[in-house]
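Would you kindly consider the sequence and fold I have copied below?
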Amino acid sequence: MPLKDSLLALLVAFLWGAQVTAVKIGGAELPPILMVAMRYAIMALFLLPLLKRVKREQLASVALIATITGTLHFGLLYCGIARVDASTSAIIYQLAAPFTLVLAFALLGEVLKLRLLAGILLAFAGVLVLLATPSAGGTFIGMLLVALAALAFAAGSVLTKRLGPLDPLALSAWTAVIAAPQLLLWSFVQEGEQWTRVYTASAQAWWAVLYTALSGGLLGFGLWFWLLGRNSMQQLSPYLLLVPVFAIAVSQVMLAEGFSQRLVIGAVLTLSGVALCQLRLPAKFSLKAANKGQGVADEPR
């Protein structure tokens, strides 16, 4: 993987990790569902030209995926982050990886190897540590909302694979266009006095909204899709493990949330489990290991 691509992958991980703190800052003044609706409305303005890249017969599938990964996923995520500290929410959200594997097994018939099963169990064990004794900085309901958001993202990912292939950039455009009005309606029904809070929000809250839309959303996903076109998912997946690391680091610097033994134990267990789920041994290494296990000598280099 070229050095430039590696640096850009690091940048994407940082942008996505810092987004958790931005949501926390903006959600302190703005209703969380309305905040994500504004995020998607801003993104839609830039993505409108990409709508035509989806075929008419794909619109029903796109609408379903957009509702799950856009409206449901981000609505639950923003509501959860508003109720729990940024560090804990970043760790719990890592359940998206094992949830995706479980749903792919159930709906797509994909095989769950022993290593993946161990990773799934380890990740869930880490989250259970966090759920068992909620800290003063968060609530049990908030943690459950973040976990449900991870499940919604996993469901949307599996549906995307089952109903695809779909143009990823066009899917992002349609998600923004579909999710924005759905989230506005959701906010109108659930959140009271939302427009009063909009009028009184500080510049810091508005900068947080812009960051989630432009930096974490458009720039982050744009770079990610570009990197996917140049590198394999196996090369890029390790960088996804840095997203919660950056999320915790940024939240500690900007929000001074502090560490606890529970947070450290939960983070180590969860991230270790996700690593087992995402990382793959190189084919050459795996072949050599198998040969050694069968008593076959390595060929000379």
Summary: Residues 203-230 form the longest helix (28 residues). Residues 3-281 form one domain. Residues 222 and 245 are 21 Å apart (CA to CA). Residues 283-301 have pLDDT under 50 and may be disordered.
